[in-house]
Amino acid sequence: MKKVIYFQFFLMMILISNNYAHTSISNEVIAKVGTQVVSSYELKNKIKTKIFLSKKKINQENINKIKGQILQSLINLKLKKIELLKYNIKIEYSKNLNSYLENIALQYNTNINGLKNIFEDNGLDFEELQNEINTELAWNNFIFRMYKNKIQIDQNEINNQLNIEIKEQKNLEKYKLSEIELLIKDDTDIRDNIRKIKKLITEEGFKNTAIKHSVSDTALDGGDLGWINSKVLSNQLQNILEKMNIGDISEPIIKDKSIVFLKLVNKKTININNIDLNSLKNQIINAKKNELLIILSNNHLSKIKNNTFIKIK
User: Is 181 helix (H, G, I), strand (E, B) or coil?
Assistant: First the structure.
């Protein structure tokens, strides 16, 4: 539970237009948001970036799935820019930018310069990605400064949550897991996919195979699921994990429409004697403050949206 008061959230890579396939189309304004505009170039670039980083195919079906959500995301980004300008807050290079770019680059086993080259090779605008991250970081700073004195934490609530955490973590088994998930169509598809993935795991490693082939949201993180409390796992998964050693990869787990491979990266048993109560309490406090700041941020953005002229062409 690594949450901090200075919360950081940003919407990277977003947006699409109905005419994506016609890449030669002239750059035009597709939405007006107060004094800001959304261009067709921004839409096309963000959708390509989104799909590329998600390891999905660029096709009309995937475009249609996210089009509405993506458009709203970019409109929100423009609203944030308007508010930052109103308070004379410059959107400039942030010292935290490199941390975000490095995290993305790690998924491709490269550094920031390597990531930039990957973007250029795939026709993606790396500068647009940087600008968007910087805007989100500036917004987060703005919200924190504006509302930090209004964050009130109920100590009784914190103590109650602490007692719950202690009870749940006492003599608790935790597993650090990674996953690879594949969609299936029929029995033949199952057998072929199992053979294919087992071969790829052997040749390229679990992490690289997850990045390239998993359909799960964890793909960009190399399939990393993090630490999972054994109490939230099904009996089937608990039985599988109990028989595995660290580093083992499970036999394929067949679900209704997918196949899942699990890797046991690490495991540990926590008892009351090795719980850092002060650290645990601070984590709870920071998480509560973070949740409140996110709510305040959304509320502030809603107020701006209600008072801004927005026209979508």
Answer: strand
* Residue 276 scores a pLDDT above 80: no
Q: What pLDDT is stored for residue 31 in this prediction?
A: 93
With cut-offs at 50, 70 and 90, classify the pLDDT of residue 3: very low
- In the structure encoding, which two tokens stand for residue 76, read together? 């929100």
Structure tokens at 74: 């970019």
Kindly write down the DSSP assignment for every residue of 114-169, as one continuous string. Answer: HHHHHHHHTT--HHHHHHHHHHHHHHHHHHHHHHGGG----HHHHHHHHHHHHHHH
3-state SS class at 17 = coil
* 56-76 tens-digit pLDDT: 887 888 888 877 888 888 999
Query: Quick one: tokens of 126?
Result: 């790396």
Structure tokens given for 109: 């086993």
| Highest mean pLDDT, choosing among 62-66, 104-108, 300-304 | 300-304
Which structure tokens are listed for 18? 């109905």
CA pair distance 253, 193, nearest whole angstrom: 12
State how far the Cα of 262 lies from the Cα of 287, in Å rounded to an integer: 29
